[in-house]
Amino acid sequence: MSYKFIDLFAGIGGFRTGFEKNACNCVFSSEIDEHAGEMYKANYNEEPFKDITKIDEKKIPNHDILLAGFPCQPFSIAGEKKGFNDTRGTLFFDIERILKEKKPKVIVLENVKHFKSHDKGNTLKVVLNALKKLGYTTSWQVLNAKDFGVAQNRERTIIIGSLNGIKFDFNKLEKKQPTYIKDILEKDNGQIEYLDETEYTLIENPKKQPSGLIFVGYRNKKIRVKGTRPDTIHLSRVHKQPNRIYSSNGTHPTLSSQESAGRYFVYHDGKVRKLTLKECYRLMGFKDDFKILGSKEKLYNRIGNSIVVPMVEEIAKQVKEQILNTTNEIIKYKKTLKQMSLFDFEN
Ligand SMILES: C[S@@+](CC[C@H](N)C(=O)[O-])C[C@H]1O[C@@H](n2cnc3c(N)ncnc32)[C@H](O)[C@@H]1O
After folding, report:
1. Ligand 1 probe mutation, 6, 8, 9, 19, most atoms within 8 A of CB
2. What are the start-end ranges of the H helices in 285-324?
């Protein structure tokens, strides 16, 4: 079965790619960032509507699924003045008004891992309460991209709601075998940026962390020594994320939307090299035919903001199986019963 969805806070369409791979059709998209919009148009041949706060919900086409990786904002400031559940003035309010008007059968929301503890858990509570008021049965979980065949340790809070009372079971998502950074590295075509041996220090006996990361060393950058005890100076280098180096035999740490210089360094075949942009897009599960355009800086921002495609693909598959196809089965069954009783009645 094919279903219609809308892609809110669309970015470069990570959600869209995953749902399209499951035979769903996008009927509306919105993204305020100009560069993201250009990439979206290049890849999906559709220009997203811009600011969602300016879009009349009545003009949005009917759809079965609402998808949104919305920015995380606290509700408590508004709440102090207007009451606990007031979401006015936040972007979640725009999701709410669309849900109220359009009543899609399913919603899938994505946010950072710490969404669950944001504002001492209040933000998540307000969102779940608001969805309940609108008739949605919800469940949520923190999922990690590395469990879906991608070599990145990227944890995200996913909330799924249904209108038919079915509680989405996250345990049914099919997990994949781990993959490693070395699996996505490009062949050296003369464009790879290597660090000179004098520019980094490798540590002794690196160990694989439970996250799958293997921290092997750090770049010899100028460090802040102020307030650091003499024999722990190396730790202050280590703690600065862009200076850390990871082995290609492990998982990569989360790509960040703040890291516009793309300072992601890996130790591979006895050398330290920077990840290429293509490798970063591969680490988010985008295929090589995905069109990337614009400045490197913006392209790094975009990829750090995106959602990991293979994780979305699995979510889409299960949303269809657990919620939507089931709804259709129930409707078909009810229709059959009705037809049977009519038949019986008339005969
Ligand atoms: C976390 S990103 C979501 C990325 C997306 N899931 C993807 O796969 O690329 C949030 C996006 O919301 C967009 N955004 C923020 N405010 C918006 C608004 N008022 N209207 C439309 N989009 C907005 C940002 O530009 C950003 O691209």
Report:
1. 9
2. 296-305, 309-319
